[in-house]
Structures are given as C-alpha cells and as structure tokens.
Amino acid sequence: MIVYSSSVAEFKEAVDDNKIAINIESAFKEKLGKRPSVSEWRSWNNSMQFMERIIRNSKVADDCGVMIEYNIPATSKRIDFIIAGQDEQHNRNFIIVELKQWEEAWTTDKEDIVKTSINGAIRETTHPSYQAWSYRQFIVDMNSAVYDTDVTAHSVAFLHNYREKTPEPLKAEQYEKTIMEAPLFLQHETRKLQEFIYKYVGKGKGLQLLYDIENGKITPSKSLVDHINALFEGNSEFVLLDEQKIAYETIVSLAKKQDKKRTIIIKGGPGTGKSVISMNALGGLLRNSLNTKFVAPNSSFRNVMIEMLTKQSSRSKMRTKSLFMGSGSFVETEENQFDVLIVDEAHRLKGKGSYMYMGINQVEDIVKSARTSVFFIDDHQRIRPDDIGTIAEIKRIANNQNCEIHEYTLHAQFRCAGAEGYLNWVDDLLGIQETGNYNGWDKDSFDFRVVDSPHRLYELIKDKQSKGHKARILAGYAWDWTAPKQGNSNGQIEDVILDEHQFKMPWNGYAIRESWAIHPDGIDQVGCVHTTQGLEFDYVGIIVGDDLKYNAERGELYSNYNDYKDKTGKKGLKNSPDKLNALVKNIYKILMSRGMKGCYIFCRDQSLQNYVMERLSRTMKSENTQ
After folding, report:
1. DSSP one-letter string for 154-219
2. Could you give all domains of the chain from N- to C-terminal order, each with its CATH number?
3. Cα(258)–Cα(64) distance, rounded to whole angstroms?
4. What burial class does residue 443 get, using C-beta atoms within 10 Å of its C-beta: 0-12 exposed, 13-18 middle, 19+ buried?
5. What is the CA radius of gyration of the chain?
6. Where is the Schlafen group 3-like DNA/RNA helicase domain (predicted)?
7. Which of 1-5, 280-284, 448-452, 592-596 has the largest mean confidence?
8. The whole model's pTM is what?
9. pLDDT band for position 259 (50/70/90)?
10. Angstrom distance (rounded) from CA 234 to CA 301
11. DSSP code string of 295-352
12. Cα dist. 550→165, 383, 477, 557, 608 in Å?
C-alpha cells in the first residue's frame, strides 16, 4: 500500500508551499487510520526537503512518479521514498531511496551490521545499503507487477546529514559488496545521487508504474521459489517420512483449490514431525505460486528454523526470513490477503492483553487473513495462561467464519529415537494423562538417566557436545532472570544457582536468545522452554527447580506460585494452584521431549528425585522380567 504518491511536479510544488509533511500526514491518517508519531512527522518535514532538492537538481521529467511511505505488503515495514520513470532507452525503472538522518556510525564484525545512535543510545542495526537492498529484493521476489514485466528495480541509501570520516566506517571493506548492490550516498555526494536518479528514471512516464506496483498481485516469483527449493534440496533435517508425507500432500492438495475458506488442523504430540511437515508445506505451496507465510508465535523457534534452512549468507537469510511472520502480525490485514498461512506451535497463540499484541484473538486474526489456514497444534503444550490456541478455539472461529474444517492426527514418533513409550511414560510420570505405561521403553533406543548432581548433568552434556552431538542444558523457570539493562546482555550473570551443590550457570544470553539453540556459546548457558519449544537436540540435560516438587504422602506433584519465576506465565494464577501446576508440568514435558537420543535429569527437590528414580527403577524391573 502506498501512503502518498504524486508526480514529480506535484511533489516539488508541495515542498515549495511547505505542505509536503501535512499532505503525507493526511494520507497517512486516511490510509492507515491512525496519526503518525511526532518523530515521523519531523522526519518527513526534514528529509523531503533534501529529496526535493535532489529531484529538482537532477532535472528528471515532471511526470516521473513519486511514492512516499510505501507499506511493504504483509509487513510493518515502510519504504521511505520511491521514484519511478524511464531511462533514455525507454526501459521502465524505479529506485528505492532509504533515507537516514544519521550523523555518525561504527563498524561491527557482523555481516551487514553497523552501530549508530538510535533513541539516545548506541545500538546495532542493519547497514543502510543492506536495508535498501532488502526492500528491493522483497518487491522483486513477491510483486508480480515487477517480476512478470520488464520493470527493473534499483535501490540506494542517502544519509543527507552524514559527513564522511577518514576512514569511513560505513564504507569499510566488509560492506563493499552490499554497497555495490545498493549504492551509499553521503552528505557531499548529492551530485552523484542526482546523476544516478536521472540515469534510470530521468525521461519520466512513471505514474502508471506506481499504479502497477501498488496493484501488483503478491505471490512468489520463480526466482524465490527456486531459491527455497535449493535450500530444501539435500537437507536431511526436512525429509518427510510415512504419515508426514500424507499430511503434507493433504495440505497442498486442499490449499491449491482456493475455491472456499478452509481451516486445516494437524494434531500431534512432541516428535511427531509437525515442524518438518509445516516447513515442507511452505516450500510446496510456494512452488504452486500461492502467497504463503510461515507463522510461529515464538521468535526463537522462527529464527532457528531459518538458520537450519539457510546456513548461508545474510542475503539468503533475508530472502527466506521474508516468508516468516510472528503471530501478532495480522491484526490489521485484510480478509483473505494471503492464500495460505501455516501456523506452527499454534498452542502458543495469544489473546487480548498479551505482551505487544494489539488485537483481540490471534486465531481469529489468522483465519480471517487467509483463504486457507493450517494449524499445527498440541493441546498439551500450552504453558502460559494467555496461550489460547486450542483445537476447540480454532474450530469455533473457523465455524464462525464459514470455513470448511479438516482434521488430521499424527501418531508416529520420530523424536526420542522412536521411543513413543518414553513419551507416554513421561505423561504418566508427570501426571499429565494416565497412560498406564509402567513398562517404559526400549532402553537401547533412548538413553534416560537420573543423575545425582547438576555438575554431573553438565559433564554429560558437555561430553556429548564435544563428540559432535547437539546437546544443551535446560531448566524450568525456577530462577529469576537478570535483565540486560542490569549488565546481563549475554549471560554475564549466573542466575541459575544451586547453593547446596556450589553450582552456577547463566540463563541463555539475551543477545543470542533467538539462535541460542545452535549458537556456540549456548553450551555454557541454560535454556528455558521459550528458547527450545518446537526445537530438538540429540541430548538434553534437565534441571528441575523448586517450581515442581513431589509430596510423598499424597503421591502428588505440585507447584508453588513463589517458586515459579515467570511473571507472565503465572499471571492471574496465584489462587489457582491446579492451573499453575498443569502449566508447569507441561513445561517439563516439553523440556524432557527435546532430546532425540537421550535425556538426563536432576531434580532439586529430593522427594521428586526419589520419585523419578523409583519410577525409572520400576521400568528396569519390568524390562528384566520380560
């Protein structure tokens, strides 16, 4: 959606009359239904004065098209400035101009990342040229009016307040490739920018191109589909097996019809392959030219999926990342804006009042926004009171929106070395559901142990990691978490403390929280359910804190409100011990089902430690009598 558009002639006149910011504000309120912030208004008033001089002095034709604040479809990102027209050979072009009011910047050792002053503090952000290039790439990948016609897209970054330094951090060697793809112009380089603009759009006739871009169908280009296909090819982590293949083909077959609204519910416990199917469905639906997005409430899960899929440069990650969205992104989207939305970890969808969510019901948002909505769900993995994603809720909303409902249940166990018996045993152990599974599982296929100290737990996991396995220490939320602003940006403070064992470790670092599961530093930090739900490792070591204890006299597991430290996770549950206990037990089941080859556990509560050991020894006796 274009917030403001005009010819170059109209744009120059509006700036001359000092009305450009007022005109943009008026269009902003009309198109978006809200007022811009004071900082946005000031930015328009300032930056558009510079752009008007650039455009006027470039001497481009008055019938070039100007687009300001172009809202990239299905995102919250807006492009500052676009100018469209023809070159001397009558080729149709448009140029994205990313405007920055920066005055200084510093390099980092991260690809395409720099530091600058943002809101009064020095923060990391993407290089302006990378940002301009990424916006161009999204349009080229997803807008049919661009990739299906003879339109060529260009992008630049213009820092009109920035005086070049010697040496200049923004032009450091590590950013050269990015600047070649999206040229960078500083304060003293206005003449070069003028020449660049005239070269590609100077001959005008750009208004129709603006119309075409705004009204172009949003669907994946062949180039993007080929890119995604290449990522899946040969990637053993996303191979479909047996009933996973059936579920995948069912999703693709139903979604391709596009003749009515449909809601597909895929039910399955931990390790049944929900994420493998959902990721493959993303690729399969894109191959069928359907405007599809992968949705996950947990940002850590989304980012690890992208890392696992790409394993390449930041540019590859960016193209792939554009297909992934958070579950709170659909409050203001139009009905059926997407062909398909694939929702993994749907049990974590939120309702009104959840952190940073401005809507009422994320299930309703998603069903409304897509012609076909696909939900992968496990009702037993809800871990917070504001997790409203249940099968019953999805069905209720789907019926309200006249969706044809399809259900599919996954049974086969592909995690925990196929040890379905182990997961049933965990259900019974934690009192989540009675399975009557006292016989345990094939001990040769899955290694479960109760260890006598957190030090021994750490030694076992470190040993597995050193031998090439994916291994991590995990814990329940039974310790406070020191905030980054208190000097704990990347696990500097050891919050997970067991004084009786002289044991200390930090929680997973804030700076790497979204990639902790695969980051090299992760082995020396303790992960929580929010950084691991939906993911899998070869081996996990679980520290069960004081948030889960065992009453030997009553034969019951219980949770204490004060010992469970997740403030959001226990909101409203102070006088609801049974609900709190159910959520805490769900958390430990999730943690105990993250390992594919083994799980080692240490319980701080001695009664719980004894109970788990007794239950484990019972499975051993049963196995020996068979």
Report:
1. EEEEEETTPPPPSS-GGG-GGGHHHHHHS-EE-GGGHHHHHHHHHHHHBT---HHHHHHHHH--B-
2. 2-215 (no CATH), 222-409 (3.40.50.300), 417-625 (3.40.50)
3. 38
4. middle
5. 27
6. 261-605
7. 448-452
8. 0.72
9. very high
10. 22
11. E-S-HHHHHHHHHHHH-S-HHHHHHHHTTEE-TTTTSSPPTT-EEEEEESSGGG-BBT
12. 64, 20, 17, 4, 5
Give the amino acid at 448.
F
Q: Which of 73, 91, 68 is nearest to 8 (CA)?
A: 68
User: Locate tokens 């020996």: which residue?
Assistant: 624
**115-169: per-residue pLDDT in tens?**
999 888 888 889 999 999 989 988 898 888 888 888 999 999 999 999 999 999 9
Q: Take residue 264 and report the two structure tokens written for it.
A: 């597909």
Distance CA 247, CA 602 (A): 37
From the list 431, 429, 359, the residue with the least C-alpha distance to 388 is: 359
- Nearest one of 619, 615, 600 to 440, comparing CA atoms: 619
Name the maximum alpha-carbon separation found in the chain: 92
Q: Which two tokens stand for residue 297?
A: 């409430």
Sign of the torsion angle spanned by Cα atoms 324, 148, 129, 206: negative
